[in-house]
Amino acid sequence: MLPTILTKFQTDYPDINIQVIEDNSIELQNMLVKGDIDLMLEQLPFADDIAYYTLGEDHLYLLVTDEYLKNCFGPDFSHVKSILISTERIQVLEPCNFLLNKTGNTIRSAMNSIFQSEKMAVKVGVESNNLETLYNLCINHYGCTVYPGNFLSDRKLTDNLNAIQFNYPSASYTLGIGYMNGHYLSNAAKDLIRLMEG
């Protein structure tokens, strides 16, 4: 969703500089309140002083390469992969490295809830605020990561990469675009919101 929308927006508004900042939810809301950013794309709900438009439902996907599963499970990798795909549950991946967002991020909070429900002792290989860093480590066989469905694109999905939608309540959420209540929104910002709303 986002890559396509930003490309269209940049075509319509070539003189506007877009800066995408990835951070945890609390920091993004603080930046919005201070006026450091104009808009934020995040899981609802937002703080009371932030107005928002609801963009729709999103789901988290587990990303893991076949090569990484082979490294972890050797000759049992096909069996583990079939369990993972058929159940959409991650407990079978307990021996694996997880590449996770830092604590405070809503995706990390959802994952912590999932790990707790599965009673998993998680091996955290890397923590980062940057989804692209985690994605690139994953496709280079360093571990499993989690990615929002609206940010996945055909370019990101390769034959070697398994993208499995989670079957957990905390892995589905409502996505919104927030802005400061009562603050001026430029026509360009309003157009960007309209593009995101579809």
Low-confidence stretches: none
| Largest sheet, strands/sense/barrel | 7 strands, mixed
Number of strands: 7
Structural class: alpha/beta
Can you walk through the features of this model?
- The chain has 198 residues and is of the alpha/beta class.
- 36% of the residues lie in helices and 25% in strands.
- The protein contains seven helices and seven strands; from the N terminus they run H-H-E-E-H-H-E-H-E-H-E-E-E-H.
- It has helices at residues 2-12, 25-34, 66-73, 77-87, 106-117, 131-139, 187-197, and strands spanning 40-43, 50-65, 97-101, 123-128, 144-148, 161-165, 172-180.
- Strands 1, 2, 3, 4, 5, 6 and 7 form a seven-stranded mixed sheet that branches.
- Strand 3 (97-101), helix 5 (106-117) and strand 4 form a beta-alpha-beta unit.
- Helix 3 packs across helix 4.
- The longest helix has 12 residues, at 106-117.
- The radius of gyration is 18 Å and the shape is elongated.
- The termini are close together.
- The relative contact order is 0.25.
- The model has no long low-confidence stretch (mean pLDDT 90).
